[in-house]
Design goal:
Elements: E1 8-12, H1 17-28, E2 32-37, H2 40-54, E3 58-62, H3 70-80, E4 87-90, H4 105-133, E5 137-141, H5 154-173, E6 180-186, H6 193-196, H7 212-224, E7 229-232, H8 236-245, H9 248-255
Parallel strand pairs: 1-2, 1-4, 2-3, 4-5, 5-6, 6-7
Helix pairs in contact: 1-7, 3-4, 4-5
C-alpha cells in the first residue's frame, strides 16, 4: 500500500493520545475513519473537527472494548454501518503500575481482555477480507515494555510482549501477500496512560516523554514500509541494547527499579 487516499481505517482508543494522533494523521493522508473508544463526547468532537478540516467520512462507535465479546459486537456494528475496513489500528489498551497483588482480578481481567483478547479477535475478524482483497493490513500498538520483564508492571508488560510476538508472527504468515502487520512499540509518551496506570512518574515536563504525534507517525511510516516492528521515542536505543548486553537475571534487577516508588 502506497497511499491511504479513500481507504477505510478503524482506530480503537481514538479519543485521546496516540489513537487521536493516528486519526488526525490518517485523515490528513486522505483516509476515511471509523473511530472507537468509550468517550462518545470526545469521539464526536474529534469526528466533527476532522470532517470540517479534511472533508472525509468519519463515524464513531462508543463502546468499552475491555468487555467480553466486544470485538464481535464492534465488527457487527461496523458492518451494519457499511464499513469495509482496509486498515485496522489496534491502539486501545491500559496498564497498572504497582505490586502485583495491589490490584484485583477484575482489573487484570479487563486489562488482558482489552490488550490481548479483543486485539486478537479483531485481527481474526478483519484479516480474511484483507487477504481476499490482497491489500491493507493492521497496526498493533504494543510498548517498549514488550521487550523486557518489568517488575511492578508485570501483567501489562507481559500483555504487550504477547502483542509484539503475535504481530511479528502474523507478519511472517503474510510475507507472500500484499497485506502487512506492523507492531508499534512506543516509549514513554505524553498520554493519559501514566495517570490511569497509577504511575509514580506522571510529570511529563521533567522527564523525556515522546509526543503522541511522533508515535503515530512512526507507526504509519513503518506500515507503509512494510516493517514488522517499529519503536518510537527516546528509549528505543535502550530497549534494543539492554537485552543484548546483560543476562536475563541482570535485566530483571535493572528494570525492577524503574517503577518502584
Amino acid at each position: 500500500m502506497k497511499s491511504f487516499q479513500a481507504k477505510n481505517v478503524l482506530v480503537t482508543g481514538a479519543s485521546s493520545g496516540i489513537g487521536e494522533a493516528f486519526a488526525n494523521q490518517f485523515a490528513e493522508l486522505g483516509a476515511n475513519l471509523l473511530l472507537v473508544a468509550r468517550s462518545e463526547g470526545a469521539l464526536l468532537q474529534l469526528a466533527k473537527n476532522l470532517k470540517e478540516k479534511f472533508s472525509m467520512q468519519c463515524d464513531v462507535i462508543a463502546m468499552d472494548l475491555s468487555e467480553d465479546n466486544a470485538a464481535k459486537k464492534l465488527f457487527d456494528r461496523a458492518n451494519s454501518m457499511n464499513w469495509d475496513i482496509d486498515i485496522l489500528v489496534n491502539n486501545a489498551g491500559f496498564g497498572k503500575i504497582g505490586d502485583f497483588e495491589q490490584y484485583d482480578w477484575q482489573t487484570y481481567h479487563s486489562m488482558l481482555q482489552l490488550n490481548i483478547n479483543t486485539l486478537t479477535e479483531l485481527c481474526l475478524l478483519y484479516l480474511p477480507s484483507m487477504k481476499k482483497k490482497n491489500s491493507g493490513g493492521i497496526i498493533n500498538v504494543a510498548s517498549t515494555a514488550a521487550f523486557l520483564p518489568i517488575p511492578f508492571s508485570s501483567v501489562y508488560a507481559a500483555s504487550k510482549s504477547y502483542v509484539l510476538h503475535f504481530s511479528e508472527s502474523l507478519f511472517g504468515e503474510l510475507l507472500k501477500t500484499n497485506v502487512t502487520v506492523t507492531c508499534l512499540c512506543p516509549s514513554r509518551t505524553k498520554t493519559k496512560f501514566a495517570k490511569v496506570a497509577n504511575s509514580p512518574f506522571p510529570d511529563y515536563e521533567s522527564r523525556a516523554y515522546d509526543t503522541p504525534e511522533n508515535s503515530a507517525r512512526v507507526g504509519i511510516q513503518g506500515f507503509l514500509k512494510r516493517k514488522n516492528t517499529v519503536i518510537s521515542g527516546h528509549q528505543k536505543l535502550l530497549v534494543s541494547l539492554v537485552p543484548r548486553i546483560f543476562s536475563r537475571s541482570r535485566v530483571v534487577k535493572l528494570t525492577s527499579t524503574q517503577y518502584k516508588k
